[in-house]
Amino acid sequence: MAHAEKPSILAGLIGSGIQASRTPAMHEREGDAQGMRYLYRLIDIDALQLDIDALPRLLEGARQCGFTGLNITFPCKQAVIPLLDELSDEARGIGAVNTVVFKDGKRIGHNTDCLGFAEGFQRGLDKAPRQQVVQMGAGGAGAAVAHALLSAGVERLTVFEVEPQRAQRLVDNLNQHFGAGRAQVGSDLPAAMAEADGLVNTTPVGMTKLPGTPLPVELLRPALWVAEIIYFPLETELLKQARALGCRTLDGSTMAVFQAVKAFELFSGRSADAERMMAHFHTL
């Protein structure tokens, strides 16, 4: 009896300091569960002693080596855009890419972070008040999260970012998409926090390699909800302090899983089992 050829997928993740990433295991185990040959490799620019200038070479190398596609993470989600042939509507709207598919000789950029965060927010903070929200960070992940927040009905988003121009670009993009005045660049963090219903951290501060909190913990209070997109560690210092106060919190696991679910579908052309991938994530 002839066997149908198993689809084989070769994917990878390009980013900085990604040795602790759970993404390869999630993809490979889901591939195993579906009877596919599925390999997922880390392309860590820190471990390779490269910097972001190597991105064009890495992307072209992966394409030439027959990769199906790549995930893109910090600090490459915006830098990758000029290197692509096409963008999905979502990636174009957000101005950040976390998934590149090589197809018919083209490099096509997608964004699955926005959907990933939206799913986590809906599951973890469903009835949370959302008149005023403070977001720390306006990078590639921050852009996707901001789009998800305003789509989920946040009335006013105040964005704090160490690079003022980057914050302004994101805020202009959001107001163009969602209507004037929905987003603003923050200048007075204590005042914004005093009025906020919720806080989202999209900066890398709190990761294992960048310990600490993205803002002074004295600005937290019990009525606030706090969301985090970092997932190594799953309990950042920010979440630990917020939970000690009794704040409602959302950790980075749901976004990590659901962005991977969607990326798996883009790479393999098959639906992924989200609950199974979530279970995989939590065994790692």
From TrEMBL:
EC number annotated for this UniProt entry: 1.1.1.25
Q: Which CDD domains match?
A: NAD_bind_Shikimate_DH
Q: Binding of shikimate: at which residues?
A: S21, R22, T23, T73, N98, D113, Y231, Q259
**Active site (UniProt):** K77
The GO terms this record gives for MF are: NADP binding; shikimate 3-dehydrogenase (NADP+) activity
Aminoacyl-tRNA synthetase keyword on record: no
Which reaction does this enzyme catalyse, per its entry? shikimate + NADP(+) = 3-dehydroshikimate + NADPH + H(+)
Supply one GO BP term: aromatic amino acid family biosynthetic process
Q: Which GO terms describe its cellular component?
A: cytosol
Q: Keywords in alphabetical order, please.
A: Amino-acid biosynthesis, Aromatic amino acid biosynthesis, NADP, Oxidoreductase
Per the record, the pathway is: Metabolic intermediate biosynthesis; chorismate biosynthesis; chorismate from D-erythrose 4-phosphate and phosphoenolpyruvate: step 4/7; Aromatic compound metabolism; 3,4-dihydroxybenzoate biosynthesis; 3-dehydroquinate from D-quinate (NAD(+) route)
Q: Where is the Shikimate dehydrogenase substrate binding N-terminal domain?
A: 13-100
List ligand-binding residues for NADP(+).
D89, G137, A138, G139, G140, A141, I229, G252
From the record, give the transmembrane residue ranges: none
* Subunit annotation: Homodimer.
What is known about what this protein does? Answer: Involved in the biosynthesis of the chorismate, which leads to the biosynthesis of aromatic amino acids. Catalyzes the reversible NADPH linked reduction of 3-dehydroshikimate (DHSA) to yield shikimate (SA).
Which PANTHER family does the annotation name?
A: BIFUNCTIONAL 3-DEHYDROQUINATE DEHYDRATASE_SHIKIMATE DEHYDROGENASE, CHLOROPLASTIC, SHIKIMATE DEHYDROGENASE
Annotated family: Belongs to the shikimate dehydrogenase family.
Tell me what this protein is called.
Shikimate dehydrogenase (NADP(+))
Q: Which organism's genome codes for this protein?
A: Pseudomonas congelans
